[in-house]
Amino acid sequence: MSDDPNVARARALDTATLSDALDRLGIVGQCYRIAGRDPDFAMAGRAFTMRCGPASTPPGTVGDYIDDVPVGHVVVIDNGGREDATIWGDILTEIAHRRGLAGTVIDGINRDVALCRKLGYPVFSRGHWMRTGKDRVQVEETDCVVEIGGARVAPGDIVRGDADGVIVIPQAHETDVLGAAEEIQDAEARIREACRGGMRLDEARAQFKYHQLQTRQKQEGRSE
Q1: Residue ranges per domain, the chain?
Q2: Is the pTM above the cut of 0.85?
Q3: How far is the C-alpha of 29 from the C-alpha of 19, rounded, in Å?
Q4: Contact of 46 with 73, CB cutoff 8 Å
């Protein structure tokens, strides 16, 4: 587990709360249609990114990078949403788990789901199917900016996944995003506690300014 303080802060927040914070700051960080291969999978870590493409002749490789991923990082693979061939399987899962990586996110599909579930190694993707990517897919570039489910991911960005999906927190804005998310989490906890004490929900929401929590705020000095 990473000792990075902002990764720890992200881990303590769920993706729904972080998504609201991203909306509040006008940042697109929600990875559309990317979901855990098990509903209990959860992860948080910094992104180790790569972009994949169709195999050349002769074909390139798909997994030789795994020993270079720093411990505690999330492997983030942009395979262009491809769903007819896998880009991750049991060998990569076993090595990633043994090396202490935080998880894997794929804009595409994986296979060998039984092993990642058995080991508890979090894999988030568009789906799973058994057809190999060998001689069909190859790694084109690592340590690059990629796109996952419509969200931009740069090396070192914080990636958080749970039962609701995956979000990306851009490194340049992580302090603002995490602060906003913690404020939202605190306000929602106060609302629930007030309602448990007998307060009406509409009154609790008004008191703790629920409807302003996700309202977009203009950020000075940040380009869209």
Answers
A1: 8-27+171-218, 28-169
A2: yes
A3: 7
A4: yes
